[in-house]
Structures are given as structure tokens and as C-alpha cells.
Give the backbone structure.
Amino acid sequence: DNLDQRKGPYLDRATANAFALGVSTLPGAKDGLFDRVDVSAAGLNPDTYVLCDSFPVKKLILANGAVVTAGTPILYYKAETTSKQWGPPGQINNRIYFDDDNRKLVSLRKMTDKTISGIHPLGEDDYAALFPQGCSNFYHYLTDPKVTGILGGWPVNSDSYVLISAGADGLYGTADDIINK
């Protein structure tokens, strides 16, 4: 009954630590988080705003001349609560979490990298020797170490969502990440 009352911005962009992904054409923005690479090449719109963490990774100059320090975008993965499947890509289609949800954003690597290349810690599988069942880094990363006895493990927060901050190093999938486990 109150949908019309709830429409509109939920956060004030000026104070929410939200920044455009690329060099933006929107009013009030000049520099983007990934101004050294073409985010559209990764399939993203440069004018898309994302919420960032508070770790100072990059200085940006806004259109009004203000210099701000931006953090890394916070990744959001919604759990598919109707699924009871967990495992590597290509083996299970109806998984609790999907690595594809933020693949395009993760493919940009660090905001300070000048190119989109190399293996990202949450990207392609470099744990194949450790996980012969083919579990990618993403699935290993979100597997709850406290849950045992289930082949392939079980994800953290399987009934809700996962938020991932890249931490002080600005790279997802490393030891300094902050996750709501």
C-alpha cells in the first residue's frame, strides 16, 4: 500500500560514499573509480554509482573541484534461499551464491591497476590442485570452515547475503577483506 511513498533515493549520494565506476557524465561527478580502464569494455556503465568502503584507496576530483578519497566498491551477493546446492561453476546450475553476480566488477581488478589482465583472487580458478572437484576461488572463499561433513562444503550466510569489502589493499579475495560471515 505504501510503495509510492518508498520510491526515491534511499541514501544521499553526497554522504553515502557512492562514486561512479568510470569517468562520469552525470552532474556533480568528474572522475570515476576506474578512470584508468574502460569500464564499458567489461560490460559496465561508467555512470553507474556504487557504494564504497571507507578504506582510502584512491583520490578523486569531483566536478565542483572537491578532492575526495574513495574506497573500493562493496560487493553484494544475495543468497538464493530456495537452493540447497553449493559447488563449483559448471557443475551445479542452481547454487546458493553465484560468482557471476559481481564478475564484471571483479574483472576490473584493483582501482589503481591500469589494465584489465591477470588472475584476480576471486576470479579464475587457481586452486585446482587443492580442490580436485574444480571449486573456483570464489566458492572456496565463501565456504564456511566451521561446517564439516558436507562434500564440497557449505557457504557462509546461506540464508541471507554476503557483503565483501576489499579492505586496505583494495583487492578482493585477500586476507584483509571484511566479510559479514
User: Anything to note?
Assistant: The two ends are 34 Å apart (CA to CA). The helical segments are 3-6, 103-106, 137-141.
